[in-house]
From TrEMBL, chain A:
Family named by the database record: Belongs to the ABC transporter superfamily.
InterPro entries assigned to the protein according to its UniProt record, in alphabetical order: AAA+_ATPase (IPR003593), ABC_transporter-like_ATP-bd (IPR003439), ABC_transporter-like_CS (IPR017871), P-loop_NTPase (IPR027417)
GO MF, one annotated term: ATP hydrolysis activity
Domain ABC transporter: 8-239
Record flagged with keyword Protein biosynthesis: no
Keyword annotations of the record: ATP-binding, Nucleotide-binding, Transport
Keyword 4Fe-4S included in the entry's annotation: no
Superkingdom assignment: Bacteria
SMART domains: AAA
Species whose genome carries this gene: Klenkia marina
Protein name: ABC-2 type transport system ATP-binding protein
TrEMBL record, chain B:
Spans through the membrane: 16-36, 56-85, 106-132, 158-183, 195-221, 241-263
Superkingdom assignment: Bacteria
Organism: Klenkia marina
Keyword terms: Membrane, Transmembrane, Transmembrane helix
Protein name: ABC-2 type transport system permease protein
Automatic annotation (TrEMBL), chain C:
Gene3D superfamilies: Lipoprotein localisation LolA/LolB/LppX
Protein name from the UniProt record: Sigma E regulatory protein, MucB/RseB
Species: Klenkia marina
Length: 307, 270, 365
C-alpha cells in the first residue's frame, strides 16, 4: 500500500485521552510532490495528528509512516529529512537568530557542521531575515519569529515540510512572500504538508486536501477533483423570468438574476437563450468552492459546544 | 548533543548571574571577618571558617562550607529544574525532539550539563575563595595548616585535599540535580520542578536532625554532604566519603531511570 | 502503539533491588564456633595485644539528669559517638571522637596520654590516672568488652547466638551479673573468634528494652596501624595544658576515711592512688563508688537531683536512676563532728543504694 511516492501514510491512527478520542482512525495519504492542505477547525485534532507524525505524541492505536519508515521507531533516520513548524515558533530569547539556528542544527543528526554557517546564512536570506544580524530573538516581532521558525524548518533542505499554521502573525505582504517561497520549494521537489484552519490559504496553495472534523477524516482528495465542474452552468440575466420559461426544467435553481442551469457547455446555454431573445450578462461553468465542499462534509465548528 | 547543552547553559546570562550571586555570600563573610576579626570558634559555624583568620588558604573550603547547605543546592535545583520543563515552557522542547534530539540523549545531555554547571560553580567558588582569602587574610608560607586531627598538613597536601573536596561537593549535588531533573520531566513549569527538588532537600535536612528518623538517616540525600571535612582528618576518613558517593550514585541511577521511564513515553503537548 | 509499562517496571525492579540489598546482606546468617563461654572469656581477656584499626559507633540510651556538670560523660552515655581507633598495643593507641566539623583525639603512649581538642585548639597531657570518669576510648567495644568481662566469673557467662559485626562472624557471649545489687541485667558481647577481640558490646538494664549502651565496630582491620598514626606532637600554635583527674577534685576537709568494708553486699576494694575519701565497692559490672562531698557542692547537687523527675527523696537523702546507673546524695544533716554528706554512684539498684546509705549512717554514728 505504501508506494515509493507515498511520503506520509497513517493507518487507523487514533489518539485517545481518557474517553475523549482526539484523533479517531485517520488514514492520511500524502504523496511526493504534493502540497497537502490539512484542513480542520480548531480542536478538530490537527495539532495532535501533526505531533504524532513527528513522534512527539505517541498514538493510542494505528501506525504512522513518514518517508516510508515507521514513526516513532525510525524517527532518528526519518526526521532529519523533515522540516517542521509546530504551532508557534520557539527560540532562545537571549540568542541571535543565527545562534538559535546553529544550536538547533547541532542538536540532532544530519546537520553537517562544515556547511552549517553557509546554510544558516542562506535560509535566513530565504525567509527574509538576512539583515537581522546579531540581535537577540527576544526583540523579534511575531512575524519575524514565524520567519525564523520557517528558517529552522528549511535548514537541512528537507524532503518534507510539515507546517502548522505557517502564516500566523504575518502581514499580507509576508503571507504572499511565504506562499511564493513554499510554491518555489514545492516546484523543486519538496513535499509540503500544510495544516491550517484558513480555507483561503489551503485553496491557494494545496494540490491535495484532507479535511478533519472532530478527530475524523471526512474528506481526502485532489483539490482539482473536489472543485471539478458540477455539470451545470451559471447564467446571469436581467430577465430571469423569461430565461426560466425558455429553459424549462433545465433550471436547477434560481436566485434573483442568477440561474443555475443543467449543461456543462456555457456556449450551448448561451445560444439557446440568445436565440430566444433573452439577454445574457454573464455565463460561467459552475464549480464548487472549497468552502462549500468543506461545509458540506463537516458538521460544524469544533469549538462550538452544543446544548 | 552534550556540546549543544553546554553551549546553551553557558551562553545564558542567567547561569553567570547565578554563579555571581552564589559567590557573594562567601565574599561578604570574608569581608565581615576581616573588618571585625570575629571568627567563630573551631567546630562552630561553617567548617574551616575558624581557621581562616590565621590561614587564608583555607578560605576556599570555608566558602564551600558556606554555600553547601543552601545556596549551592538552590542553584542546582534551579538549573536542573529548568532543564526539561524550561524547554517545554519556552516551546523549544518540541522542536528539539522533532529535530530529533532523541529523548534519552536529551536527558543524559541535560544531566551532563547540570554536572558541568555544578563543577564550574564549585571551582569558581573555590577560586574566588582563594583570591579573597589570600588577599584579605594572612597566608602561612611554611606548611603549618593543622588538620582536624591535630597533625600538620603541607601546602601540597592542603591543595590536593581541596581538589578532592571540590570533586566531592560536586558529586554531592547530583542527588538534588537528579530530583530536579526528574521533576522537570513531570511538569512543564520549571519553577514547580525547582520547588519540588527544594522540598526534598529541606525535608531531608529536617529529617536528618530528627532522632526518630535515625533509621532512614543513612539514606537521606543530604546525609553525607559535610563529609568533605573528612578529607582534612589525618589519616583521611574515607568511610562516609565512600558512602556519600555511593548514595549519590544510587539517587542518580534511580531518578534518572524514573525520568527516562517518564520522559520517553510522555506525550509532548507543550 | 508503544508499550509503556516496561520502562517503569525496570526502574521499580532496580529500586527494589537497591533497597533490599543492605537488608539481604544483613540477613545472611553468621557462622558459630564450638567454643565454651569460659574459653571465649579467656580469649577476650587475653586480647590486649591484638593490633587493629577500625571505626566504631557507640549509642548510649541513658538520659542523665546532669545538666552543666559532667556534660562530657552525659553525652557519651546518651548520644551517638563515632570513634576511629588505631591500636598497636596497650600503651600505643589512638582513639578519635569524630564529629561533623571537628574531632577530639586521645593518643596513648608509654607514659601517658595526649588529648587533642580541635574545637579549642588545645592539646592536654595526662598520665593515666587510676580512677577517672569514663571517656570516649573506654567506649570502644574492644576496651569495654575486655573491661566488663575481666571480672566476670564463668558461672555468670553463657553463650548466645552469633552475629555479623563489621563483616566478621562474631560469636556471642552473655554476662549476667549474679550480685543481688546489680542494676545491669546482662552484658552481651560478640567476639571475633580468631583474635578474641570484642566487636560489639550491649549493656542491658532490667527495666527497659532499650540498651543502656550499644557499642560496635562498623569497620575493622586487623593489621597493625603505623606508629606515625598513633603518634602525636602538639601543633605549634595550640594551647598545651595538663589533664585534671579525680585526684585534683576538692573532696572536702573531712579526714574521715572510715568507710565500711562492705556496702549492700559489695566488698570494698582498693586501688593505688585513690584517696581514702573515695570508697570503691563491688566487682565486674556491679560497682559502687562512695565519696564524701563538701557542703556547698552537696547542697547544689542535692537540689539538682531532687528536681529530676523520678527522684526518690526520703530521710536517707535523694537518689535517682538512669537506666542501670544510679546516683545518690546521702546524709541530710551535718551534726557537730558527725557524718557529712556522701555521694554514692554506681551500677546498682536504688534499693542497694538506700541500703548502702543506711550502712554509712550507722557506721558514722
Amino acid at each position: 500500500m505504501t508506494g515509493s511516492d507515498t511520503v506520509i501514510a497513517t493507518h487507523g491512527l487514533r489518539k485517545a485521552y481518557g474517553s475523549l478520542r482526539a484523533v479517531d482512525g485517520i488514514d492520511l495519504d500524502v504523496r511526493a510532490g504534493d502540497v497537502y492542505g490539512f484542513l480542520g477547525a480548531n480542536g478538530s485534532g490537527k495539532t495532535t495528528t501533526v505531533r504524532m507524525l513527528l513522534g512527539l505524541v505517541l498514538p493510542t492505536a494505528g501506525t504512522v509512516e513518514v518517508l516510508g519508515r515507521p514513526i516513532p521507531k525510525a524517527a532518528r533516520e526519518v526526521l532529519p529529512q523533515v522540516g517542521a513548524l509546530i504551532e508557534h515558533p520557539a527560540a532562545y530569547g537571549h540568542l541571535s537568530a543565527a545562534a538559535n539556528l546553529s544550536l538547533f542544527d547541532a542538536a540532532g543528526p544530519g546537520g553537517v557542521r562544515r556547511t552549517r554557517r553557509s546554510r544558516i546564512a542562506e535560509v535566513l536570506e530565504q525567509v527574509g531575515l538576512g539583515g537581522v544580524g546579531k540581535r537577540p530573538v527576544r526583540g523579534f516581532s511575531l512575524g519575524m519569529r514565524q520567519r525564523l521558525g520557517l528558517a529552522g524548518a528549511l535548514l537541512r533542505r528537507p524532503a518534507l515540510l510539515v507546517l502548522d499554521e505557517p502564516t500566523n502573525g504575518l502581514d499580507p505582504q509576508g503571507i504572499h512572500e511565504i506562499r511564493t517561497l513554499l510554491l518555489d520549494l514545492n516546484r523543486t521537489g519538496t513535499t509540503v504538508f500544510l495544516s491550517s484552519h484558513l480555507l483561503a490559504e489551503i485553496e491557494q496553495l494545496a494540490t491535495r486536501v484532507g479535511v478533519l472534523d472532530r478527530g475524523r477524516m471526512v474528506l481526502q482528495d485532489d483539490l482539482a477533483t473536489l472543485t471539478a465542474p458540477t455539470g451545470a452552468t451559471v447564467v446571469d440575466t436581467p430577465q430571469a423570468e423569461r430565461a426560466r420559461a425558455v429553459l424549462g426544467d433545465r433550471v436547477l435553481s434560481a436566485d434573483g438574476d442568477r440561474l443555475v442551469v443543467r449543461g456543462a457547455e456555457p456556449a450551448e446555454v448561451n445560444a439557446v437563450l440568445v436565440g430566444a431573445g433573452v439577454p445574457v450578462s454573464g455565463l460561467t461553468l459552475q464549480r464548487p468552492t472549497l468552502e462549500e465542499v468543506v461545509l458540506a462534509a463537516a458538521t460544524g465548528s469544533g469549538d462550538r459546544v452544543a446544548a | 548533543m552534550i556540546a549543544v547543552e553546554l553551549r546553551k547553559l553557558f551562553r545564558r546570562p542567567r547561569t553567570w548571574i547565578t554563579i555571581a550571586l552564589l559567590n557573594s555570600l562567601p565574599v561578604l563573610v570574608a569581608v565581615l571577618l576581616k573588618l571585625t576579626d570575629l571568627a567563630p570558634r573551631p567546630g562552630e559555624g561553617p567548617a574551616f571558617l575558624s581557621a581562616v583568620l590565621t590561614n587564608g588558604t583555607l578560605f576556599p573550603l570555608a566558602a564551600l562550607a558556606i554555600v553547601l547547605p543552601l545556596f549551592l543546592p538552590i542553584a542546582v535545583a534551579v538549573v536542573a529544574g529548568d532543564a526539561v520543563a524550561g524547554e517545554a515552557q519556552g516551546g523549544t522542547l518540541r522542536y528539539l525532539l522533532a529535530r530529533p534530539a532523541g529523548r534519552t540523549r536529551l536527558l543524559v545531555a541535560k544531566l551532563v550539563a547540570v554536572i558541568a554547571f555544578v563543577l564550574v560553580t564549585v571551582v569558581i567558588v573555590a577560586a574566588v575563595g582563594y583570591l579573597v582569602g589570600t588577599t584579605l587574610f594572612e597566608v602561612q608560607s611554611v606548611g603549618a595548616t593543622t588538620a582536624l586531627s591535630g597533625s600538620t598538613l603541607t601546602p601540597e597536601q592542603v591543595a590536593w585535599r581541596t581538589v578532592l573536596s571540590i570533586g566531592y561537593v560536586t558529586i554531592s549535588m547530583l542527588g538534588v540535580a537528579a530530583f530536579a531533573l526528574f521533576f522537570s520531566t513531570l511538569t512543564d513549569s520549571p519553577q514547580l520542578a525547582t520547588l519540588g527538588a527544594l522540598a526534598v532537600l529541606i525535608g531531608s535536612s529536617l529529617l536528618f536532625t530528627l532522632d526518630a528518623a535515625s533509621d532512614i538517616a543513612p539514606y537521606l540525600p543530604t546525609r553525607y554532604w559535610l563529609s568533605f571535612v573528612d578529607f582534612f582528618r589525618d589519616p583521611i576518613l574515607w568511610r562516609d566519603v565512600v558512602r556519600g558517593l555511593g548514595l549519590q550514585a544510587v539517587y542518580v541511577v534511580v531518578l534518572l531511570g524514573a525520568a527516562w521511564a517518564n520522559f520517553t513515553t510522555k506525550d509532548i503537548a507543550s | 502503539m508503544v508499550r509503556r509499562g516496561w520502562r517503569w517496571a525496570v526502574v521499580a525492579l532496580g529500586l527494589a533491588v537497591l533497597v533490599a540489598l543492605p537488608a539481604l546482606v544483613a540477613a545472611l546468617p553468621a557462622d558459630d564456633r564450638d567454643l565454651s563461654a569460659a574459653e571465649l572469656r579467656a580469649q577476650v581477656v587475653a586480647s590486649e595485644d591484638v593490633a587493629f584499626s577500625g571505626y566504631a559507633i557507640s549509642t548510649g540510651g541513658l538520659v542523665l539528669p546532669v545538666s552543666d556538670a559532667l556534660t562530657g560523660v552525659a553525652d557519651l552515655l546518651s548520644d551517638q559517638t563515632a570513634l576511629r581507633a588505631w591500636y598497636r598495643d596497650a600503651d600505643d593507641w589512638r582513639v578519635d571522637v569524630v564529629t561533623a566539623t571537628g574531632e577530639t583525639g586521645t593518643h596513648r603512649d608509654a607514659s601517658g596520654t595526649w588529648t587533642w581538642d580541635y574545637a579549642d585548639q588545645r592539646a592536654s597531657r595526662g598520665d593515666d590516672p587510676p580512677l577517672a570518669l569514663p571517656s570516649a576510648p573506654d567506649l570502644l567495644p574492644s576496651a569495654l568488652g575486655r573491661r566488663l568481662l575481666s571480672e566476670a566469673t564463668d558461672a555468670e557467662l553463657t553463650r548466645i547466638a552469633p552475629a555479623r559485626v563489621a563483616g566478621v562472624d562474631a560469636v556471642g557471649l552473655r554476662y549476667t551479673p549474679a550480685d543481688a545489687a546489680a542494676s545491669v541485667s546482662a552484658v552481651d558481647v560478640w567476639v571475633d573468634p580468631g583474635t578474641g577481640l570484642p566487636l560489639r558490646v550491649v549493656v542491658r538494664s532490667a527495666d527497659t528494652d532499650v540498651p543502656a549502651l550499644d557499642t560496635r565496630f562498623l569497620d575493622l582491620d586487623l593489621s597493625a596501624p603505623a606508629a606515625s598514626t598513633t603518634d602525636f606532637s602538639p601543633p605549634a600554635d595550640s594551647d598545651i595544658t595538663r589533664d585534671q583527674d579525680l585526684r585534683d577534685l576538692d573532696l572536702g576537709r573531712q579526714e574521715r576515711a572510715d568507710l565500711p568494708s562492705a556496702l549492700a553486699g559489695l566488698a570494698r576494694r582498693t586501688f593505688d592512688g585513690v584517696p581514702d575519701q573515695v570508697g570503691a565497692y563491688g566487682s565486674g559490672i556491679t560497682v559502687l563508688a562512695v565519696s564524701a562531698l563538701p557542703g556547698r557542692a552537696a547542697g547544689s547537687l542535692r537540689d539538682q537531683l531532687s528536681r529530676t523527675p523520678g527522684a526518690v527523696v526520703d530521710d536517707l537523702g535523694v537518689r535517682i536512676a538512669a537506666g542501670p546507673l544510679s546516683l545518690m546524695v546521702a546524709g541530710t544533716s551535718t551534726r557537730d563532728g558527725g557524718s557529712g554528706t556522701y555521694l554514692l554512684a554506681g551500677t546498682v539498684t536504688l534499693d542497694a543504694l538506700a541500703a548502702a546509705a543506711r550502712q554509712i549512717q550507722e557506721a558514722g554514728r
